[in-house]
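Reopening this one. Same input as before:
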Amino acid sequence: MARTTRSRDGTGTVETLEPRQLLSAVGAPTRALARASAPQRHAAHVVSLSHGARRRPRRLLMLRPGWSGPIVITHGGTYRGRWQSLDPNTPAVTIDTTEPVVIVNSSVRSASDGIVDGVDGVNLTVLRTTGWGLNPGVAGRRPGRFVSIEHFVRIDIENCTLAHTSGIYLGYYIGDHTPAMSVRVLRNVALDIDGRYSNGQGGFLTGPNDHDDVQFCQLAYVEGVPGIQIAWNQVVNQPYQSRVEDNISIFRSSGTAESPILIYDNYVQGAYPADPATQDYSGGGIMLADGAASTPDQESAYVQAYDNQIVSTTNYGISITTGRDCSFYVNRIVSSGYLGDGTWIAAQNVGASVWNSNADPLFANNLAYANVIGWMHKDDAGLVSRNDQWAPGVIGTELNIPLPDPITRQTESAEYLIWVQKLAQNHVSVGTSPAARRLAALGRLTPANIAS
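Same output, byte for byte:
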C-alpha cells in the first residue's frame, strides 16, 4: 500500500529494428547508459542509426534468434517488432519522443523494464503486445515493469499479455486534463506480478523484506484527470511464484466529480507475500485511495470500483485508506483463507475495508455498498470465522451482501467460471488471444506460448 517509483538510471543504448521496420522514427538515444559486461559470452556488434549522425558500433550480449536488441524510438509512428534486453540496466524499448507512438502486435522480453520513457511528455499506445520479465540475474534487483512511464500526457494499454513482470507504473501526469489525453488500461492479461529480488543465481530471495512493492497497475500523482479507465483485465498471481503489493493501486491520484476514475469488470486472483504461510503482508486486491495529502487537489478522490471480482488477495479485497469521494459497489470479494495445498494464509485479514488509516483530515464521503462478500479470517485463538468488512462509521456497508457459508476453495474456483461466462456474455476478449487468457489462468504461460 505504497507508491513505487522506478530506477531512472537507464534508457537504452542501442536501436535495432527488423529490416521491414527501419522507419524514419528511429534516432540516436539522448542519454548514455551503462552496459552489462559479459566477457564469457559471445558478443555482437550492433549499429545505432541516427539522422545526420555517423554510425557508431555498440556491443550487446548475443540475442536469441528472432529477437532484435533494445530500441530507442525518437519519432512518432507505429512500431511492430520483437525486442529483447538481457542487460538489467537497459530497457527493451525507450520512448524518446513526445510525438504519438503506437506499439502493436509486438513482443518485449527484458531483464530490465520493458517499455519506458526517455523524455517527459510521452504519448503512448500499446496494443496486442506480449511482455515477459526475465530474472535480472543481479542480487537485490527485481524483475522489470512491463510499462513504466513518468511525466506523461497520455497512456493507452489494451489487449496485452504480460508474465513475470512487475506490472504497469504510470506516474506524474502532465497532460491537458481532457478525456482525450487520459489513461486507459483495458482487457489485458497478467500472470505473476513479481517484486521479489533476484538472488543473482537464477532464483529469487524470499525474506520478508526482499522485495519492492509493485502492482499490476499503479497510478501515482495522476491528479484531476477525466476519462481514466482500468477495466476488463485478468490478473492471476500464484503463491510462491509472485509478490505483488496492491494489484490495482490509486496513489495520490484522482478523477473529477463529472468523470471519476473508473475501475470496473476486472478479475483479480491472488496477492501474497513471498511466503504466504508465515509472513505478514499489507497488499491486496484494489486500493482505491492511498497516500495522505496536505491539500484537497493532492488527495486521492473521485474513484469508483464496480463489477470487479476479487479472489484470495490476503490482507484485503477492496480498500479505501485515505482520500475523499471514493466508492466501491456491486463487486464480488471472496477468500477462503487457504492455499490449494491446504496451507492457511498467515496474513489473511478482511474482505472490504473503508478506514482512515492515515488519519487524513480530508477523509470524507467514502462508501462501500451492495458488494457480495465471503471472506474468512483466523483469530489469535486459531478460530476461523467470517471477516467480510471493516468500515467503522461508514454509511451503507449494511447493504453489503454476505455470501452463504461455507466459503471454501471451491467457492473461489467458481468465481473464475463466472468470469469466463461474463466475458462470453459481453463479447469481450482479453489479452493477446483466448489461449493466452486460458494459459495465464492455469499458470502455464511460457516464453514459447505467451504469444500463441
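So the earlier flakiness isn't reproducible anymore. For the record, The chain has one domain: 65-441.
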